[in-house]
Specification:
Cytidine Deaminase, domain 2, 6-stranded mixed sheet, 8 helices, 27% helix
C-alpha cells in the first residue's frame, strides 16, 4: 500500500547559511475510479481511505444513494506488474443505472463541470435525494468556534508536512462530538472521504451534523454537503459567491471565516444559536 508521507532531501537556507536535511512531504498520487471495469474519472489524492473516497465521490455525484448501491470495491493491478493501489474498481448493485460518461473527457458530467451558475444550482436541486433545509438542528455558536482547534489537533499528517487539507464531521444529534477526520492533498477528496465513511455506516443522510473544512467553501464542497444531506457547512476561509447562492437555494447553513471567536453566517443563520 502506498505511504501517506515520504522523505525527501532539502537544502534549508536561513540567514545566509545552508543546511542539508530530510523533509517529510505529503504523498500525491493518481487514483483511477472504475465502474464495472469502465474508467470513470481520475483524481489526484493522498493515498488512504480510497474506498471511502470512491464511495463519497459516487454519492456526491448522484451515481449512488446509499451503501446498498455498492456491491464491492477492490484495487486492480495489471497482469505484468505489481499492484500500485492506484486503480479502484467499484461494482454497483444490479438495479443502479450506470452514469452518463463523456468518453471524450473521461469524466462524469455533473453540475460542477463548468456550466453556468443558474443551471448548476438547478442541477444540484434535481440530483439531491435529501433536503438539508428541512433539518431542525440548532448548534451553539461556542460549539462552532471550538471546532477548528479540535480539527487541528486531529491533523496528524498536516502536523508533519504542513501540506494537507482536512475535513471533519461533528454530530449534533448525539452531543456534538467529532465523529471522523480525513486529510488529503485535495479538500474535495477529504470531504468525499468523510462522506464515504458515513456511507459505509449507513448514515446518509447526515442529519444533525456539521461538516468543517480547513480551507475555503467552494461551490463543489457546498454541493457535496447538500448531496449528503448535511445541514451545516463551516469553513475556515472564504466562501465563493456560487457557494452562497447554492446554500441559500437549498436551505444549507453556510459558515465561513471561522476564526477565533468570530464567524460569518451567509445562510440559515437561525441554526447558529447564542
Amino acid at each position: 500500500m502506498s505511504r501517506i508521507t515520504q522523505r525527501r532531501p532539502v537544502s534549508h537556507l536561513a540567514a545566509g547559511d545552508a543546511t542539508q536535511r530530510p523533509e517529510t512531504l505529503a504523498v500525491e498520487e493518481p487514483l483511477e475510479i472504475r465502474l464495472g471495469g469502465v474508467p470513470l474519472t481520475v483524481t489526484m489524492r493522498t493515498p488512504g481511505s480510497d474506498i471511502e473516497l470512491a464511495q463519497g465521490f459516487l454519492l456526491t455525484e448522484g451515481i449512488i444513494g446509499g451503501r446498498d448501491d455498492v456491491v464491492a470495491a477492490r484495487y486492480c493491478g495489471s497482469p505484468d506488474s505489481a499492484n500500485t493501489y492506484n486503480v479502484l474498481d467499484v461494482t454497483l448493485a444490479p438495479d443502479v443505472p450506470p452514469p452518463a460518461v463523456d468518453i471524450t473527457r473521461n469524466f462524469y458530467a455533473t453540475s460542477s463541470c463548468g456550466i453556468c451558475g443558474k443551471a448548476s444550482l438547478e442541477a444540484v436541486r434535481l440530483a439531491s435525494r435529501h433536503r438539508p433545509g428541512d433539518d431542525p438542528v440548532r448548534v451553539p455558536a461556542a460549539a462552532v468556534t471550538a471546532m477548528p482547534d479540535q480539527l487541528r489537533a486531529a491533523q496528524d499528517v498536516f502536523a508533519s508536512t504542513g501540506g494537507l487539507h482536512a475535513a471533519a464531521l461533528f454530530d449534533f444529534s448525539g452531543g456534538g462530538t467529532m465523529q471522523v477526520v480525513r486529510e488529503d492533498i485535495g479538500r474535495h477528496n477529504a470531504v468525499d472521504k468523510v462522506i464515504g465513511w458515513a456511507l459505509e455506516r449507513n448514515r446518509i443522510p447526515l442529519a444533525g451534523t456539521v461538516l468543517l473544512v480547513s480551507g475555503r467553501a467552494s461551490f463543489e464542497l457546498t454541493q457535496k454537503a447538500v448531496m449528503a444531506g448535511i445541514p451545516i457547512l463551516a469553513a475556515l476561509s472564504a466562501p465563493s459567491s456560487l457557494a452562497v447562492d447554492l446554500a441559500v437555494d437549498c436551505g444549507l447553513t453556510l459558515v465561513a471565516f471561522l476564526r477565533g471567536d468570530s464567524m460569518n453566517v451567509y445562510s440559515r443563520a437561525d441554526r447558529i444559536t447564542g
